[in-house]
Amino acid sequence: MASAAASAHIQATPTLCAAAKPPLQMHSEHPQRKRVLFVTSEFADLIKCGGLGDVSAALPRALSPQHDIRLLIPGYRQVVESGRPIRIVGQLPGLAALPPCQIGRMDLADGLIVYVLLNPALYERNGSPYVDDQGRDWADNHIRFARLGLAAAEIATGDAGIQWRPELVHANDWPAAMAPAYMAWRQASTPSLLTIHNLAYQGLCDMRCASELAIPESACGVDGLEFYGQLSFLKAGIAYAQHVTTVSRRYAREITTPEQGCGLDGLLRAKVQIDQLSGIANGIDESWHPESDPHLLQGFSAGDWAGKRANAAYVQQWLGLDDDGPLFAVVSRLVQQKGIDLTLQVAEHIVARGGRIGVIGQGEPALEAVMAELGRRHPGRIGVHIGFDESDARRLYAGSDFLLMPSRFEPCGLSQMYAQRYASLPIARCTGGLADTIEDGVNGFLFDAPRADAYRQAIDRALQVFDHPELLEAMRCQAMSAPLYWHQSVQPYDRLFQRLLSQATAYRALR
Q1: What's the angle, vertex CA 255, arms to CA 368 and CA 240, rounded to 5?
Q2: Which CATH class is domain 306-484?
C-alpha cells in the first residue's frame, strides 16, 4: 500500500470482479501504432539525476504520435508526492526476495501515461534513485531494480492485472536491464530492446544474490549474467534483448573495443555479428529555443546577440566575474569521466590568455573541493557554483562563448548540443557522441588525446576565432543550426520498432 504521505495523491479504485473488467487490449486499433512500454529509472518531469531523465521525458513524447508509448518508473518519494494523482490499476505478487507491489497509473497533462511501481519500503526514501543522502549506494539496489525489471516482464506477459499489454518493451540502462532477462525466463513472446546510455555503469551485485532475484541457475554462467565473479544487470539485458542500441553511432563502435568495452566488448561484438547492435543519436527537446526559452533573461536569435549579452551580464553578476574576456562555461557532473581534472589543468592557461570560466555542477566531493578552491584563487576570473539549477545552467549556456567538455568518453552528450543551440561553441574531445555532433572548426572544436596539451591547443584555436568577430559569428550561426531535435530521431526508432515486431511475428509463426 502507498505511504500515508502519498495517500492524498493516490486514488485507489474499487475492486472489480473478473467479469467487470474490460477485455485485455492485445491488438491496436491502428495497426501501425504499436504499444511500447518504456522502462526507466528516471523521468525529468518527476525525478532526474542525469541525461537519462531528459531522454526518458523527451523520446516517448516524440514517439507518441506514431505509437502508444507508456512509461514504467519506480514510485520514488518525489514521484508519489509530486501532486499528480495516481490511480491503482494493477497488483504484482512477490517472487523470491522481490516483494509484492502495486502498479499506479499517472496521466500527465499532455496525455503521456506513466505507470508507477509502488512499494514504499523499496522506493520512498530520502536521497536519489541510486544513493542515500550521504552519496552511498543503497545496499538493496539489486532488489529495487530487479523488481522494476520483473514488473516490466509481468506487464509484458499480461500478468500485472492492467488492461494494456505492450507489443514491445524498451528498457533503458542497467536499472531496467533485467526486464529482457525476466521476459526470456517467462517465455514472453514480446520482443525487447535495451538502450545503453553509459556502459560504465553495469549494476553489479554479488553472485550469491541470484537466489534472491529468482535467477535460474542456468543463467548464472559466463553466457548469462556472470561478470568476473559477480552478476551484471547490464550484461543480462545485452544477452537477452533482441536488439541493443546506444545513444550515438560512434559510441556503438567504441564499446566493441577493449579500450571502451568495460569488459563486455566480446559480447557486444557478438551482437554486431548478428546485426543486433546499433547507434541512434539522442536529440534535445523543443524547449531549447533561445528565442523563447522562459529561463533566459532575454531571448536572442542568430545575428541578434543582445539577448546573449544580457545573459552574460547575469552570469557575471551571479558568479562574481569581471566583465572582460571570452567566457568559458563548464556545465557538468564533476566526475572523472567528464575530464574535470583536465579542465583544472588548463584553467590557469585560460586565465593567462584573458579568459573567464563559469562553472555549475556537482559530483565527486574531491573534485568539487578542488574546483571551489580554484575559484577562490582566481576571484573575478573563475566563478564556481557547486550544485545545479536549471535556469542558471541555461543562462550560462546562453551567456558563454565556449563550452568546455573534455570527456574521457561520452556515449552521446547533451550539453554540447544545448551549448550549440545557444551559440556557445563546444571545445570537446573527439569521442562518442561528441564526434558525431561537433564538426571541428565549423560549429565547435575537437581534440583527440585526453591530455592537457591537446586540450590547450584546442582552446588556443578557439581564442583565435574569438579575436575575429566575423568568423566567430559565422561559427555561432553554424552551431545554432546543428543540434538534432527529438522529432528527428523518431524515424530510426520507428524503423527499429517495426523490424523487431516483424521478427517477433515471423518467429511466432514458426513455433
Answers
A1: 110
A2: alpha beta
Task: Show Cβ contacts of residue 495 under 8 Å, excluding neighbours closer than 6 positions.
Answer: none
- Which phi and psi angles does 243 have, rounded to 5°? -155, 150
How far apart, in whole angstroms, are the C-alpha atoms of residue 70 and residue 72?
7
**Predicted confidence pLDDT, tens digits, the chain (511 residues):** 333 333 333 333 322 222 233 333 333 344 578 999 999 999 999 998 888 998 999 999 999 998 999 999 999 999 999 999 999 999 999 999 999 999 999 999 999 999 999 999 999 999 899 998 888 899 999 999 999 999 999 999 999 999 999 999 999 999 999 999 999 999 999 999 999 999 999 999 999 999 999 999 999 998 889 999 999 999 999 999 999 999 999 999 999 999 999 999 999 999 999 999 999 989 888 889 999 999 999 999 999 999 999 999 999 999 999 999 999 999 999 999 999 999 999 999 999 999 999 999 998 899 999 999 999 999 999 999 999 899 999 999 999 999 999 999 999 999 999 999 999 999 999 999 999 999 999 999 999 999 999 999 999 999 999 999 999 999 999 999 988 788 777 889 999 999 999 988 877 766 6
Separation of alpha carbons 447 and 74, rounded Å: 40
Pair 357, 331: CB distance under 8 Å: no
271 annotated to a ligand binding site:
no
The yes/no answer on whether domain 4-11+24-284+488-510 falls in CATH 3.20.20.140 is no
